[in-house]
Input
Amino acid sequence: MRVSLFATCLVDLFQSNVGKATVELLERLGCEIDFPESQVCCGQPAYNSGYTKESKEAMKRMIDTFKDAEYIVCPSGSCAFMFHEYQHVFKGDPVWEPKAKKLAQKTYELTQFIVDVLKVEDVGARLEGKATYHTSCHMTRLLGVKEAPMKLLKNVKGLDFTELPGKEQCCGFGGTFSVKMAQISEQMVDEKVCHVEETDADYLIGADAGCLMNIGGRIDRKGKPIKVLHIAEVLNSR
Amino acid sequence: MTGTIQNREVFLNKIASQLGRTRITAPIERPTWKFRPQDEVLKGATQDELVEVLKEQCKKIHTTFYSTDKDQLSSLLDEVVSGYGGGPIVTWKDKRFADWGLDPLMKQEWPEKEMDVYEWDYTRGSENIAKAEQANVGITISEITLAESGTVVLFSDENKGRTVSFLPTTYIALIPKSSIVPRMTQAAQKMRQIHEETGHVASCINFITGPSNSADIELNLVVGVHGPVKATYIVINDL
Amino acid sequence: MPMKISNEQFKERVSKGIHDDFMRGAVSSAQDGMGVKRRIAAEELGNWEDWRSHGEEIRQHVLENLDYYLEQLSNNVAKRGGHVFFAQTKEEANDYIRGIVREKQAKKIVKSKSMVTEEISLNHVLEQEGCEVIETDLGEYILQIDDHDPPSHIVVPALHKNKEQIRDVFTEKLGYTKTSKPEELAAHAREKLRQEYLTADIGITGCNFAVAETGSFSLVTNEGNADLVTALPKTQITVMGMERIVPTFEEMEVLVSLLTRSAVGQKLTSYITVLTGPKEELNVDGPEEFHLVIVDNGRSNILGGEFQSVLQCIRCAACVNACPVYRHVGGHSYGSIYAGPIGAVLSPLLGGYDEFKELPYASSLCGACTEVCPVKIPLHNLLLKHREVIVEKEGKAPISEKLAMKAFGLGAASPTLYKIGSKLAPTAMSPFKDGDKISKGPGPLKAWTEIREFPAPNKERFRDWFKNREEGGK
Output
C-alpha cells in the first residue's frame, strides 16, 4: 500500500523523531512511504487567526502536492483535520472545492489509518512503564477519532495505562492562542500538568505535536520527571 | 376583549428584508420533521410500567410517592396531611374530590378536627389568594402526568386557582393512574388537541415536578424556595 | 445593567479572574458537576444526537420564517386580549415599558430572571422612574442586593460568590442574623420575597419560548418564582428576544426538554409554566393586563448572514459549562452579561467589535462548546468567523500580526521559501538555544517561553532525514 506522508511543519522542524517513527512503523506494517517534497504548512495557524485569504495559498499548494496520493497519512489529528476542513474553506469555488473534497476523502490521522484502513490493532510494540494519554481536541471532537489510539495502546506490551482525569479538557495550546492569550493558556496547561501528575505516569502520550509541545514545555519548565512521547514513538518502540 | 399590536410592520419587514425576501403571507404548514426522537421514550410501555417509572423518578425529585385504590384514598390523604402538620388546607373546587369519596374527610373530619379547609371560590376574589398564602397544604388533581420526568400538569380555570399549587408550604397532587403518559410529548399533543377542539387554551398550564428548589448558592441544592418545600404524589389506581 | 459590564481592559479583567481563587474553585467544581449531570441526562436518552438534530431543525426553520411566526404570535396574543409591542431598539422597549409603569402609577415591580431585560438595562430605567424593582430568582436577588453585582453565568448568576459573602450581604442589607447555611439563607429570601410578590404592582418576566400557534409563552424555573411573578401582580409584562419562538406546543416541548437537560441535567425543571394572555374573566389569580414586548436590539442584523445560527441559541449555558477558558477566567472577564463561548460569539454582534473584539480570541478552538450545544450551533466556527471579520473587514488586527501572516502566506505557499526558511531556522534560533530547548524566545516566542520551554529546531529536518535515507537506499 502506497502512503503519502503529510509530516506537518512541527514534525519537520522540531520533532523529526516523530516523523522517523511514523515512517518506520508504517513500513513495518507493509506500507510504502513517500514524502512529497513540496509540502509546506497546512495553513492552520493563519486560518485560525482569521487570515483566511493568506492561508488559502498554503491550502492550494497542499492540495496540489497531494493530488496523486492514494492515502495521505498524518501524525497529527489537528493537521489531518485541517485537510478535511479545506472543502469548507473553498465552498462554492468550482475549481478548488472538488479538489479539496478529494483530498479529504483520502486523508487519515496515523492511528485512524492503522486501525480503520490497515485493520491492525496490535502493532507488536513494547514499552515498559506507567503511561497516560492526552486526547487532543481537534482529533477527537473535530476529526472524530476517539477509539483508535486507545485500541492500539491497549496492545502495547509492558505499558501500564491509567486514564487521564479531565481528559476531555483542552491543554491550552490552541495554536496562536498559546501566545496571544498566554495568561489563560498558562492556567489551562497547569491544570493539565496537575492531572498528568495525579496519574503518577512515567509517560505522557499524545497524538498531536502541538499539544505535546505545550504540555511537554510546561512539564520541562517545572522540572517534572515525566517523559512526553508521541504515539508514533510508542507504537514504534520494541 | 381584543388587545393591541404596535410597531409590527416595520419590525417584520426588516426581518424579511434581512432574510432576502418579501414577507411571508401564505400560511406555513407545520413541517414534517426529519427527526422525532421524542416518540421513542418509553414507547409501548404499559400503564403499570409507567407507574413504576414515575415512582422511581419521584426519588430523584424529592417527592414522596404513594399509590392507592379509591377506597383507601381518604385515609391515605389524611395520613399525608397529618404528616405535613395538618391544616390550614386549600383545595381546588372540583367535583372529582366528591366522586373519589373525599367529601367526608374534607367537609367533615378535617373541620371537626379544627383544621381549616378552604375550597377555591372565585366569587370571593382575592380572599382566595390570602387563604392559599396562609395554607400549610395545597391539594390539586393532575390532568396529565408525565412518567419520565415525574411531572403533574395542571390547567387553571375559575375553580382551579394557580396559586393552590404554589403558595402553600406543602403540596399534594392526586393522580388518576389513567392520566399517566410517557413524557411531555404526549402532554403537548393533548394541549394542541384541546386548542383545536375548543379554540381555547387555559391562561395558565403548569408543569410541576416536585417541590421548588434552587442551587444558586454554591450549587448546593436547597429544596423549597419560593414554592412548596415538600411534595407528595398519590396515584389512584382504580378510577 | 447594560450588556457591557466593565470598563476595564480585557487583560485586566482576565487577570482579576485568574487571581480570584474562590471564583475559580466554584467555577471548576460547577463545571465538573454540571458537566457530568448534563452528560448523564443526554446519554440516558440513548439517541441524543437525534434530539440535537431535531432541536437544530426546529430552530433553523423558525429563523428562516421568523416574520411569519412573529406575526402569528402577535395576532394570537391580541386575540386573547394581550398587548404586543414590537421594539426595534432597547430605547423603544424601555419607553414602552416606562409608559405602562406611568399609566399604572406602579411603585413596586417584581421580576423573574431575564437576560434580555439585562441586555436593554430595563432595571435602570425602572429605577429612574422611582420604582422599587425586585429580582426574585435567588441568584439574581443576591446580586441585586449586593449593589447590583453583575451576573457571571447565564443560568447560575451568582456562581462567583460563596455562602459567607452572601451571608454578609444579607446581614448588611436585610438585617439577617442567621448562619451561612444555604437552607437558612434561602429561607430568609423566601420570607422576604413572599411579601414582595403579594404587594407588587407589576410582574416582569423574560420568555423561554413563545408559541406562535396559540399566542402562549413558557417560563422555565426551579424555584417557582416566575409563577408567583405572573400569578399575583395585576399587570404582567413579558419581554422576549425576537428569536425565542416556536411554531406549536409540540416544538416547545422538544426545546424545553433540550434546555433543562443541557442547562441543569434535569429531565424537566420543577416549574414549567405555559401562559396565554391575561387571566380569563372569572379567574382570581393571574394578571388582568398582559403586555408582550418583542425585542430586536440588533438581532435582525444577524439574520441572513454568516452568524445566523447563533440565533438558534436557547440560553442553556451548556457551552459555558464546557468551556476551558471560562473555567479559568470566570464570567466577569468577558465584560458582557453574556459570558462563555455563546457570549464571545453574541457580544460582538449585539454590542459591537469596539467593545468586544478580544472575546473571539478567548478560545483555544477546542470545540467543547460546539460538541455540547443542544441545537448544534457551530460555536467555535463562529468564533473563527469573527476573527476573519476582525482581520479582513474591520481591519482591527495588529499591524505586526498582519505582517507576520503576510509573510506566512508567502512562506507557507511557496515550497522554496518554506525550505529556505526552515533550513535557516536552527541557525536563526541558535543564539537563544539552551541545549535542545529555548527558554527565552524572541518575538512571538517570548509569550510562549515565559511559561514553557520551546524545543530548539532539529539540526536535521525530517525532510532531510527522509531524503538522505531514500538516497542511501535505506
